[in-house]
Each structure stands twice: as C-alpha cells, then as structure tokens.
Design brief:
With about 475 residues, the protein is α/β, with parallel strands linked by helices. It has three domains: about 180 residues, Rossmann fold (3-Layer(aba) Sandwich), CATH 3.40.50; about 140 residues, Rossmann fold (3-Layer(aba) Sandwich), CATH 3.40.50.450; about 150 residues, 3-Layer(aba) Sandwich (Rossmann fold), CATH 3.40.50. It contains 19 helices and 19 strands. The strands form four sheets. It has a six-stranded mixed sheet. Strands 14, 15, 16, 17, 18 and 19 form a six-stranded parallel sheet that branches. Strands 9-8-10-11-12 form a five-stranded parallel sheet, sandwiched between helices. Strand 18, helix 18 and strand 19 form a beta-alpha-beta unit. The protein is globular, with a radius of gyration of 27 Å. The relative contact order is 0.09.
C-alpha cells in the first residue's frame, strides 16, 4: 500500500464534514494517508491562527504528493446563501484552489453543492459535490459509493504521478533561495547594495544558500533552469516591466515566492498596482496582506524576519484517527474563555456539562476537572484569577448551589463582572422546576437575570451548550 502526503485544504470550523471524509477515505485502505495542515501547535495541542503566509503555502503544496480539498458551507442546512455569502465563505478555498491549479498536482475537491456557482473548476480537476445533509447525518451517506469511486481514481492518479516523478531527474532544491531585486531607478525605488546585503544575510542566517540574479535579468534558458532549481525566490513586484515579467513568470511556474514591494517614503495608503490586480485579483485573501510593503530599512528588516520565521515553522501531519479527531475538533473550538460554576453536590451534571462545553470551547474552567487549577496553587486565588479572565460565566443554579458559601461568592463576583460588562453571564437552572422561593431568596442578586432551564432542554447537555452559544452570538458586544 502506497503512502501519500496530501496537502489538506479545508474549513477549520467544520469538524463533522472533515471527519466524515477523513474516515471514509482512510477506511478504504487504498493508501496510507498523511494529511499536511498549517497552523497546528503540537506542543500546545491547539490551532494557532496566524497571518496567511502564501510563500509557506506554496512550498507546502509543492512538497505534497497531491492536493485534497474539503469545502463545506457553514450554518443551517436549509439555507440558500446569496452569491456574496458564498464568495465570502469560499475566500480561502479559492486562494488554495489557485495554488492547486498552478501546482499541477493531482487534485480532488469535495465541495458543498451550494458552492457550484463560485468555485472555478476545469476538466483537469477531479471534483465531486455533496449534499451537506448526507455528510452531516451521522450515518452512511447514499453518495458514499460515488465519493469512494472518486477517491479510488484519485489514488490511482497520485500513484501514476509518483511513478512519473521518480523516473525523472529531480533538482536539489533544498535550502536554495533566489534573490531577484532591481537596482534604484530615477523614482528612488529599487534596492541599494546595503539592503540587498541585509536580505542575503537574513536568509543565510537561517541555513539557506543564495542564488543572486543579476539586474536586469535575461529571461533565457539559463534563467529558467536556475529558477526551477530554487526552493523559493524573493523578489519585488513593482510595475517596472522587467519585474512584472519575471514576477508573472515565477507565479505561473509555481515557484514559491516571497513578494516585496518598495513604496515611496511618506506613502500612507498604497493602492494595488496593475501587476497585483493582474496576478492576485481573483482572490481577496492571502496575497494582498502577505506582500511585504516597506518604506524604511526597519520595515524591510522586521517584515522579512517575521516571514522567514514563519517559513521555518514545520507543518503538522495527520496520519491517525486520533490525530484527526483532535485537530479537527480543536480547530473548530470557540475562543471565548468559559468559567463554569457549580456545587459539588451537582458534580455529575456539572462534569457532563463541562465535557460538552470542552467540545465547543478551547478554554473551559471547571474546578473539579483536575486541570483548571494548577497543582500547588491556592485554589481560591486560582478560581478568582480565572474568573477575572473569563469572557463567559455559566453558573449552574440549584438548591445546593444556593446553600454553598463558595458558590455564592463566585456568583456575586460573576454578577459584578457582568454588570460592568467584563463578561457575559448565562445562568442555568438545573432543577426540574422553577427555583423555589427560598432558593431564589438566597440568590437574590441573580433575580433580574433570566436563566436557561435545563429541564426544558430535556436535560440534554449538547442542546444546552448549543443554547449557550446562541446566547453568546446574540450579545457580541459583551465578547
């Protein structure tokens, strides 16, 4: 069985769709799959959202054996989104699809059929659309056989591609970086020798070899061969004709490129150039922000070093179901810190709600989970420190809660933080009936706040967490 390294293009916050296709394709046992993804911190075991580094993505796609895209549409299954909504939700899909097309790697795209009007596909791409209701149903999808056939054919294509590549001489691109920069012109743009030297030093300090192209370059056979053997290239994308020609060439040839643009001193707002509109006008994300626009040596140095550090970060590979579950679930977690407050006598229900919250939120404080309070620390101080940093507080109300002195202290602090709009309070009544008068009297400071009835949600912890998320979304000002 062959082993494939696949660049995985997907929506972070759609774990069910991602896991559906991961399980379907992995269980076929046609190939040993290793999915390469960006942004996962394996030490913290969480997703780190960072600015998109297109050079890094280009290198990842070129280094992969093939490209797999899973493109679901978020939200209600019954929604018929407008074209504007489709374009907005597919912005990163279209960026990475641009990379896939230029890479000329084997491609398989599984996309929600609602995207059909906005995703550009050609006859060279292997694509299959899906009905989101099938994928999210939690059972065997009626179209599973179709997906299986597409994936089987895709694997055959990847195997043929690997066999073809292994029979060809392969350039040694490792750690070879090209530098293609113009000399100063009559407008004061271009690169002084000291600036080129600084760029070379920063690249060499990270263990790279340099190929310095003369200016102006002659776009002949020698240039084409030299460029094809680069790991990546750094160049400026000004409108000067030679720069524009070389930038367009390396873009079309899918040479990973760090794109610089020198701006006249004093420029505040820089409009996209004709070249930028031509090369990157088809997508709204990625390229525009990733271009290193600079006016001073300090801007050039800091921007260059930040991008080089990002390039050196290793990608993460998913090869097991456990890794896939952890990655896809974590990638979809909400970032609001949640403080869960409950009585020890309600520990069983509190633990169940805590577990359900942790499936949807990255940071949940639960004083009994053995993790939220650091060993050796004063527990009272830990509790109130975590509460002070929370965005959402969920007190689980009951007679036991009202009788607990510690719970009352927590609840009073929660009310104070809520009143000062430092967090959002969402009380939950665990009792099967409305709180009795005695309990309400003990919790009088909560009297003006409507609670969520757990009983009305049939004591379903998943439904409760979904209701909590809805309430958070209804009050964005408190986040």
């Amino acid at each position: 069985m062959s082993a494939f390294k696949l660049f995985l293009s997907h929506r972070y916050k759609s774990p069910e769709a991602n896991l559906f296709f991961f399980d379907l394709f992995s269980n076929l046992k046609i190939a040993e799959l290793q999915f390469e993804v960006d942004g996962w911190n394996s030490e913290k075991r969480s997703l780190e959202k960072k600015s998109t580094n297109v050079t890094r993505l280009e290198r990842m796609v070129r280094g992969a054996h093939a490209f797999l895209g899973i493109y679901p549409f978020p939200g209600s299954l019954a929604v018929s989104p407008s074209r504007e909504e489709l374009l907005s939700e597919s912005s990163y899909f279209r960026l990475e699809l641009d990379l896939a097309i230029r890479s000329r790697k084997p491609v398989l795209i599984c996309f929600d059929q609602r995207y059909r009007s906005v995703l550009p596909f050609s006859a060279e791409l292997r694509v299959c659309d899906f009905d989101a209701q099938e994928v999210l149903a939690g059972a065997t999808a009626p179209s599973a056989a179709t997906f299986t056939q597409h994936f089987t054919n895709f694997c055959h294509e990847v195997e043929a591609s690997l066999a073809f590549e292994s029979a060809r001489p392969r350039p040694n691109r490792e750690a070879t970086v090209g530098v293609l920069l113009s000399t100063p012109n009559d407008k004061g743009l271009g690169y002084e020798p000291a600036q080129v030297s600084m760029i070379e030093s920063a690249i060499k300090d990270r263990g790279n070899d340099i190929v310095l192209f003369s200016w102006p370059p002659v776009l002949d056979r020698s240039f084409f061969l030299a460029v094809s053997e680069l790991d990546w290239l750094i160049t400026d994308i000004g409108d000067e004709p030679v720069l524009a020609a070389s930038a367009a060439y390396v873009h079309g040839r899918f040479i990973p490129t760090m794109r610089l643009k020198r701006l006249p001193a004093g420029t505040e707002i820089e409009q996209p150039s004709v070249l930028e509109k031509s090369l990157f006008g088809g997508v709204e994300v990625g390229y525009p922000k990733d271009i290193l626009r600079w006016r001073s040596d300090d801007e050039l140095s800091s921007g260059l070093n930040a991008r080089l550090a990002r390039l050196d970060e290793p990608p993460f590979r998913i090869s097991t179901r456990e890794q896939a579950e952890q990655y896809f679930r974590s990638a979809a977690l909400r970032k609001e810190a949640v403080f869960l407050s409950y009585s020890g006598n309600d520990g069983e229900t509190g633990a169940a709600i805590s577990s359900a919250l942790k499936k949807r939120f990255e940071n949940v404080f639960d004083y009994k989970d053995g993790q939220s309070i650091r060993p050796g620390q004063p527990w009272v101080k830990e509790i109130f420190d975590k509460l002070s940093r929370a965005a959402v507080a969920v007190p689980l109300l009951s007679k036991s809660y009202a009788d607990s002195e510690n719970c009352n202290h927590e609840a009073q602090e929660i009310v104070a933080l809520n009143d000062s709009r430092k967090l959002q309070m969402i009380p939950v009544n665990l009792s099967p009936a409305p709180l009795d008068d005695q309990t309400r009297q003990k919790l009088s400071y909560l009297r003006s706040t409507q609670y969520v009835s757990f009983a009305q949600l049939n004591n379903d912890v998943e439904a409760l967490v979904q209701r909590i998320i809805e309430l958070i979304n209804e009050n964005p000002a408190t986040q």
